Amino acid sequence: QVQLVETGGGLVQPGGSLRLSCAASGRTIRRYAVAWFRQAPGKEREFVAAFTRGGSTTLYKDSVKGRFTISRDNDKNTVYLQMNGLKAEDTAVYYCAADPTLIYRDVGRHTAYDYWGQGTQVTVSS
Known about the structure:
By secondary structure, the protein is mainly β. Helices cover 0% and strands 47% of the residues. The protein is globular, with a radius of gyration of 13 Å.
């Protein structure tokens, strides 16, 4: 059983930066697939970035490549999402998700993940 808690969301101007944190407890997530998803009002939950279960490969949604970076600190059992060059269309609730057994082709599918945090609101506005 794994618990996930996201922090770091807030209000930021276009072009600004935020760093989100996903702190895990209960089990180490070192060997889990770990991902960030986001959901805006009236829209489907969408994939943003992830570590595969192998831990050495990262994946990103095309629209965030070059702006967002996923990273981790295994000693703290925490995964981060550094977001730079934020745009209005990045506004959403951001969720951390983890799963110990999903296969590579399911990394971008929110229905494949068993463990979720409560979400943190990111608002990009002038």
